[in-house]
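Q: Can someone sanity-check these two? First one:
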Amino acid sequence: MELFDLTGKVAVITGSSRGIGRAIAERMAEHGANVVISSRNLAPCEEVAAAINAKRPGAAIAVAASLSSKAELERLVAETRKAFGRIDVLVCNAASNPYFGPMAGVSDDAFTKTLQNNVIANHWLVQMAAPEMIERRDGAIIIVSSIGGLRGSTEIGVYNISKAADFQLARNLAQELGPHNIRVNCIAPGLVKTDFARALWEGPYGEELIKATPLRRFGEPDDIAGAAVFLAGRAGAWMTGQTIIVDGGVTS
């Protein structure tokens, strides 16, 4: 268990009131971490934290924060330090996808919102959490991107651009923070059965997408959570600036 033991670690996971983020938080808590559940709305976060605390009392807190608000993200970091004293693991999981369709049809506001929430907010959070990691010479930062960042699309091209930027964000940060023993990596999921991706897996192309997946199924949130636990723990100690693709073989 030592390679995956997160005992004593404090993990902040954005977008963790449901889907992939919730699975990551639950699995990290099972491996010993104290976790901070965060999304825009407090009530769903409190429900997840309560479920985790029912198994490990005191292991989770809930802090609402919007990706578009730097002040709210600063409060998220401050509340984490107030409750647990530190941040060892940062998981930038939350994202937005306000537009489906060709690039020619996207409004400036939708394009800006996508880049703001999927890239700039991640940059902000890293800059908020990294100083204490630098001081301790230890930390793990995980950005949940997407295989969409590896390919073009006529429907989610704007979202894919933001996810491609996340790959480069992780590479740059790995170079800057590596000398301080801070690891920065991405996870690139394929199509996972979450509410966020419902328009895709429940859409008219769902059966075609399944046929194009060698494992012949969509992903489940737990399929991604295992990769996050790996990257957060001793098992991923010599890995940085990389992307783990978890997609059922779609990009193989």
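And here is the second, same format, sequence then tokens:
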Amino acid sequence: MACRKVEALLEAGARVTVMSPEAGEELQQAAAEGKITWKRKSFEDTDLEGAFLVVGSTGNRELNKRIFLLADSRRILVNTVDQPELCNFIVPSVMRRGDFQIAVSSGGASPVLARLVREELERRFGPAYGEIVREMAALRLWLKERLPEEKRRRQFWEEFVDLDFFNSLAEQDITMKLKERAEECLSRLAD
């Protein structure tokens, strides 16, 4: 659990410090590579100084509660693993395909449900969606020149976005097929 939290924080650009007398192999490796700071010690109140966000994952309910109360009283964001009542924010399960991202949350009630739904979404929306979104960003600029009126652009996008079509695309065809579809949709709007 701690490894997944650390990984997500690193992906978000956080500087991560782990306070624990012991750590699993992955965390030890991350520390050895300089990706995280690992302080081989038990938690002390002063460890919260300068913290922006805290993840409690001690396995000790009383210690987790103490960490939550201290962090919350200092207006520090705190998320305690598997104890939603000891969180002042939640971490959704996120599917990422480049800039195409979907977050799923159960409000802390069932992280397993959120993960399973995210995994289902990953099967439904494959890796091609990252490229599709990149191409659509370029199309937005192209479209603003062709259709200056916002209402017409909205009509274009309603016509253009088709999940069945997107799912049929092979990764090597995405750019060409999206441009073809854009021209077809623009032509239908002009009729």
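A (reply): Looked at the second one. DSSP finds eight helices and six strands in the chain. The mean pLDDT is 93.
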